[in-house]
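Quick one:
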Amino acid sequence: MTIKFYRPIPISKWLPNEKDDDEQQANDLIDLKTKLKTALQMPNIMVLAGSGTSLGKVKGPSMSDLWRFCIEDPSRKLDADKIIAQIEYDLTNPNNKNIEEFLSYCEAYQQIKQSTELENFLIKSKEIILDKCKFDKPSADLFAHIEFIKKLARRKSKDNRIKLFTTNYDTCFEEAAGKLGITIIDGFTFSAPRIYSPQFFDYDIIKRDSMNTSNTPKYLDGVFHMYKLHGSVNWFKRKETDGNFFIEQKESDDAKNVCMIFPAKGKYQQSYIQPHLELIAKFLQGIREPNTCLITTGFGFNDDHLSEPIYAALQSNPHLKLIIVDRSVERKFKDLESFSPYWKKFKALADKGLDILFIEADFENFAINIPDLKALSPAENLYQVIHGGTK
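Output:
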């Protein structure tokens, strides 16, 4: 019988330094790790990392932080109040204190009535968001990212590469990989300047060995693919003389030309222009592949352009396994109407028997508890053959 962690069982209670006399909970941890290890042996592994992976020790900005920085900061409040009055934005409703809703309202107003003052306010807001999402962190703060990548990098090099999709603008995963000496294939050229060219997602890295007479390529260990669905703080558009543009990876404060999908309802439409279209296409293709495991972590399913394809793929792809890692699973299950409607939809599919596993844990605790992906021992392989169908 498949265990559904609806209770759910917080990973934080399973940590070795925690005293836990509940034998059932201990058995559940063992069972969960077995399930995770089996899932992570599947041919295709995809990860969808959301803003929750950049909170905690990393101290990346949340949506409420961005509201404060852009609207309530003393240096911004006077200008913000003028704009709020100009566009008649209703702040009597507490739910409207939402940077995504506000910027969407501003952009909609601009479509109807052009305002230089509003345009300048929007540019300045984007500059603030760009600045707040650019942060360098020491290794201690990137512990979860380093642990996460290190665990997944132990996957056999002959297996398909891990595909990490993220909606985050920051460079935490890139920095963590750099500290581990792990190569990322991210769709940019390897030469400087680094220019976006999606054909690079089809390339791989092999090791040449002069002593190896075999024609079998030896793939470099640890390499993984990364797709930044909403762009990045170090992606910038450069216009060419013929009017076309290309994306360059560099450091800059140019908010007008940064290649990022800023928080707003219009990000659904923006996701379907280049380079984001190519990245979304890779995601849509991946979840339709047979024998695929998709892990979501720090992702609240508030982005319909990603949540809806996952929901559709679960119903049409019988070989898709979904593992949802969230720090508030229990709270969301108790009050499904207060959160993204996809929580209710995914729970309904799981109740019908679809292969969906819910785990309550923050990103760090999940990273700590990911099982080692080194090759299974003969005894483990035999155990899984005998017991794999009885779980």
